[in-house]
Amino acid sequence: MWLIDKIEDLFPSTPLAFLIYLGAFSLISVILIFVAAKVFNKPKKTTKTPSKKELSIDDLLKIAKNPKSSKADLITAIELFVQNFKIKNDEKKSFEFFEKLLNHKNRDKKIFDIFHGKVIAANIEYKDRLDKMERKALNK
């Protein structure tokens, strides 16, 4: 009998106490569900195999010529150019790339900042020609 008395003591004796027990049980249940969801739904780590294809100026030129290229694509293209290429390696394609990039419909201030700050600084022997190209694109 003493066990039954102990169990009855755990049950709420008033409607307010019952609602408090119900609310506490619901809150604990929701917290446990969220914790379980977070633990069991960890993002799977994907391993990308590095591309063996060598980046070329033609790849960047395709991005600059594509009218559907986003601002992020254009910024990535100009940053890749700064990291991997010099104008003197292929002047014709380099200037064509910059002309398409600077006159692209999705260009923005950041592209001009990178162009002016990094491209011109890294290719100082072409400064006059690059400045002229930049002014022409800005006046468009």
List the helices and strands and how they pair.
Elements: H1 2-10, H2 15-40, H3 57-65, H4 71-84, H5 91-102, H6 109-122, H7 127-138
Helix pairs in contact: 3-4, 3-5, 4-6, 5-7, 6-7
First-residue to last-residue Cα separation:
93 Å
Query: Helical content, roughly?
Result: 55-70%
- Radius of gyration, CA atoms, in whole angstroms: 32 Å
Largest sheet: none
Strand portion: under 5%
Principal-axes geometry comes out as: rod-shaped
Structural class: mainly alpha
DSSP strand count: 0
In the predicted model, the low-confidence regions spanning at least 5 consecutive residues are: none
Tell me the series of helices and strands, N- to C-terminal.
HHHHHHH
Supply the number of helical segments.
7
* Average pLDDT level: 82
What does it look like?
- With 140 residues, the protein is an all-alpha fold.
- The chain has helices at residues 2-10, 15-40, 57-65, 71-84, 91-102, 109-122, 127-138.
- Helix 6 (109-122) runs antiparallel to helix 7 (127-138).
- The chain is rod-shaped, with a radius of gyration of 32 Å.
- The mean pLDDT is 82.
